[in-house]
């Protein structure tokens, strides 16, 4: 993953927001940060999760968005693989309020340490639930202020809601392809 100023200079928030990146990049205080993605398992898990939340929109009161920019600080933008918002949340071009869930799907180049650091950034911003899914290891984690905790029960959920995702179901769908 590359982290570098564009053209040997830092860029402004305005330039970042007005430039199209393919795939979309994150932004950290003048530096454009490339994201690891684009491989089949990563992409298909994004699709599975976004579809799961959309299909359960009426029952769970939420919906999923893929690769939605989230401004966590005035000069810091992250792009979670899947954001989950409550139905009725204000519609924003770029999210400036914490989503209910931020989901990161690890790519082979990602490390648990990097995923844990990103989870803490989401939590510090006010995201209540951060999920990290590692398709290579076939495990999922929940983010906490002290790092990542393995979803040892094999379930990702949101307390006080009917939201429940069985990690084995995700990987079972993935393995059918």
Question: How would you summarize this macromolecular structure in one to three sentences?
Answer:
With 177 residues, the chain is of the alpha+beta class. Helix content is 28%, strand content 29%. The chain has a single domain (36-176), classed as tt1808, chain A.
Mind sketching the topology for me?
Layout: E1 3-4, H1 13-18, E2 26-28, E3 31-33, H2 40-55, H3 57-60, E4 62-66, E5 70-73, E6 76-78, E7 82-86, E8 101-105, H4 112-125, E9 129-134, E10 139-144, E11 147-150, E12 155-157, E13 164-166, H5 167-176
Question: What do you see in this structure?
Answer:
With 177 residues, the chain is of the alpha+beta class. It has one domain: tt1808, chain A (Alpha-Beta Complex). The protein is 28% helix and 29% strand. The chain has five helices and 13 strands. The chain has helices at residues 13-18, 40-55, 57-60, 112-125, 167-176; strands at residues 3-4, 26-28, 31-33, 62-66, 70-73, 76-78, 82-86, 101-105, 129-134, 139-144, 147-150, 155-157, 164-166. The strands form three sheets. A six-stranded mixed β-sheet has the order 4-7-8-9-10-11. A five-stranded antiparallel β-sheet has the order 1-3-2-6-5, covered by helices on one side. The protein has a two-stranded antiparallel sheet with strand order 12-13. Helix 2 (40-55) crosses helix 5 (167-176). The longest helix has 16 residues, at 40-55. The chain is globular, with a radius of gyration of 16 Å. Mean pLDDT is 91; it is low at 1-6.
Query: Which CATH class?
Result: Alpha Beta
Percentage of helical residues? 25-40%
Q: Remind me, CATH topology?
A: tt1808, chain A
* Class of secondary structure makeup: alpha+beta
Give the name of the CATH architecture: Alpha-Beta Complex
The CATH homologous superfamily is called tt1808, chain A
Strand order of the main beta sheet, please? 4-7-8-9-10-11
Low-pLDDT residue spans: 1-6
Per DSSP, what share of the residues sits in E-state strands of 2 or more residues? 25-35%
Mean pLDDT: 91
Radius of gyration: 16 Å
Number of helices: 5
Task: Kindly give the count of domains.
Answer: 1
Order of helices and strands: EHEEHHEEEEEHEEEEEH
How many runs of DSSP E, i.e. beta strands? 13
